[in-house]
Each structure stands twice: as C-alpha cells, then as structure tokens.
Design brief:
Elements lengths: L1 E4 H13 L7 H17 L1 H11 L13 H10 L2 H19 L5 E7 L2 E9 L2 E5 L8 H14 L3 E5 L10 H9 L4 E3 L3 H10 L9 E3 L4 H10 L4 E2 L7 E6 L5 H12 L6 E6 L2 H15 L5 H11 E5 L3 H11 L3 E5 L3 H5 L7 E4 L5 H6 L25 E9 L1 H17 L3 H12 L14
Helix pairs in contact: 2-3, 2-8, 2-9, 4-7, 5-6, 5-7, 6-7, 8-9, 10-11, 16-17
Length: about 450
Amino acid sequence: MRIVTSEEFRAKELNKIMSRGKADYAKVLSDVKEIIKNVRETGDRALLDYTERFDHVSLTKPVLRVSDNEVMEAYKKIPKEYVNALKRAAENIERFHRQQVTPLLSMSIDEGVTIGQAVRPLSSVGVYTPGGRACYPSSVLMCTIPAKVVGVKKIILCSPPSREGTVNPTILVAADLVGVNEVYRVGGAQAVAAMAYGTETIPKVDKIVGPGNIYVMAAKQEVSRDVAIDLPAGPSEVLIIADETADAPVIASDLIAQAEHDPQTMVILLTTSDSLASSVAEEVSNQVRSLSRREIILVSLQANGLIVVVKDVTEEIEYANLIAPEHMEIQTRNPHSVFDRIQNAGAIFLGRYSPVAFGDYSAGLNHVLPTGGYAKIYSGLSANDFIKRVNFLEASKEGFSKLKDTTMTLAKMEGLDGHAKSVTIRAETKETGKPKAARGRR
C-alpha cells in the first residue's frame, strides 16, 4: 500500500475520494432502460431471453420460481455448521431490529387534542441477491429480517441462476430460514424490472432492496420513480483511524478483509504514527500472500488503498467526516473520544476487538450501508425502512375550541376560505350525535 503525507493526500487524493460515489451509470443506462422496457412489455418472455443471454442458461416459464423441493434439497448441499451460523446470526439481527421501531407515538398537544403517528408495514418487498462471484447469504438475512420484524407479509427474492440453472444453495437456505415467501432464479436489471412492474410470474412489490452490480444499481435508480428502493450502495469501503497504540497485524488484516470484496473497494488508514504506517504496509504485503482472493485484493489495494500519515487526531477526524466511509474502525488509545466527534459513517467499530466482520455477519447490525460518501445523508438499512408512519389527530369538543381561532386566522391569511369554512361550520351547527359503532359478528 502507498504511504502518503497529509499534505499529499489533501492536494492529490482527497477530492477524488470524496467524489467516488457518483457511480457512472451513464455508460450502462441505455442498456438498462432497454431491458426495463422489454420486461414491462413482454414480461416473462424478456426474463427468459435475458437469462439465456447474460447467464447462459435456458429456462422455461414454469421453472422461473424455485420450487419448495429445491429449497429443501439445498439444506443437504451445505454443511450443518453453515445452517447453524445463519440461524445464530439471524437471531441477533432480529433482536437488534426489533428495538428500532416505536409502534405508536401519541401525545396530547393541547387539552382535548391528541395527535400522533401510527406505524404500518409495507405490503410487499423484493430482495435482490447476487449469485455470481459475490454471493452473500448474509445479505439475505440483512434485507429480509427487518422487513419481517415490522410485519411485511409478502417478501420475494430474485437471484441469478448458475449455468446449471440453479440458485446458490446457501442463498436458498438463508431465504427459507427467514421466511421469504417466493424465490425466483432471475438476476440483473431484468430482475429489478420484474419486481418493480410485475410479470406473469413475478409479482410487483412496493420496495426493492439489496446489493448488486452497476446494472442492478442503475436499474433500481431508474425504477425508483415507480417503486421505493433502499440506499445507494457501491463497492465496499473501510477507513481506519489509528494511533501508535494500535496493532499493525490487526489493522492490516482489516484492510485486507474489505479489499477482498471487490477490485474497486476503498481501503484507507489514517494514522498519527509513522512507524505504524510502515508496519501496516509491511504486514499487508506479508498477509496477502496466503489468501485465496489474492488477485482481487492486490488490484484493490493498488487502485484504492492508501495509508495517510496525519499530524494529529483532529486532522484524522476532519478527513474521516469528509470521506464519510461505509465502515469506520477507531483503534486509538481512547476510541470513544474520537467516536463522539464522528458525524459521517455507515457503521463504526470501536477498539481492537471489534472487527467489521462482526457487523457483516453475526453481531446483529445491518451491513447494508451507504457507500460513496452517502453516509453524509443516508443511514444504514433498518426496520424503519419497511414501514410507513401514518399521522392521526383526534379533537374533542373542548379541543376544537382550543384550535379553531388560530386555524381560521391562518386559513384566511393564506386565502383559503374553504379551510376556514370547514372549521366555522362545526362551530355554527349543532352536534347531531355520534353514530353507533358497528357490531362485529362473533
């Protein structure tokens, strides 16, 4: 990894890094629009054609949906320890996300006037899950469990088939464990289009979530006028803040752990220690030699890996907030003092014993996080992304009298006589009595 001074970083690298999130969808947008158009017009026929063209497998309409028998067979294809690990992670993810939503907000704003918000789940959600080089059953858990927790009744999943026409068994097991209703062997922009608009086989959903390549992300942006989507998510990122107390082998391994995701992964170390910078660079070179994804790691580190030696912790924090990374680790003498000054990050990991991998898999955090600097304005995926908040108001006769004059004055100020009339008519007419409540059958 390259080691640069703070001055070199500020002059030559910072602006480029800060603008990294502006994914170049332009180069694929024409193709994506054509795919979406064809799926909307010809439905399943387009899905089958694109699957043969892009995934090199010929399917028929009846097998687009993965059968229950295929899901059960998937359990036999993976080690039992994988299943148990998925179950344990799912338990922690569910526990964390159940605490995220306040089911009802209700308050008395004045005597006789109650206002609040009621929570309602979305009706349906579509989850996209990659199935090629990037196959992440953990993402199935992260995208599905928050939706199940808040009561989304219908969750479907799309994942591209292998050349044998099968969906990765770890994906199928993860989907079954968390209660996905339907799984379809469809990938790419065509899967996004199918979930956004529906086909003869795949139902339309209210929201689409999940990671994917540039075609998938461009498709999600394109359909977002008609269906909700989650957050901008590109290549993975980690930024580590460290001082002289940090452990070079640990930091090196954490940088490598992110670099193995993708050749475009961003990995940055900000440190106040020259000796730590040199030690980490040496450790990275040594550790990478024995890893199975060595080629991907080396490309990533060469293109997007940096070690920056800064003058003090204040400068570290300044750079960190400007970069707004997906993942941030703080490995300093007092990590909480640094944490309190961090404004922009998808998720923050404090101290030597808190690797990003815990957040990726098992601790219960959601690993669907904003990348590309979007942590300045987006939060990570949560249970709140799968609900609507419905405002409500209830005023008694006494409460009505408290608000009527202010309301009529403001309505007249804005020239909306109808609004004012809707208030005065209640004051002018006598109450006719409340209708009897309908009695339900027992």
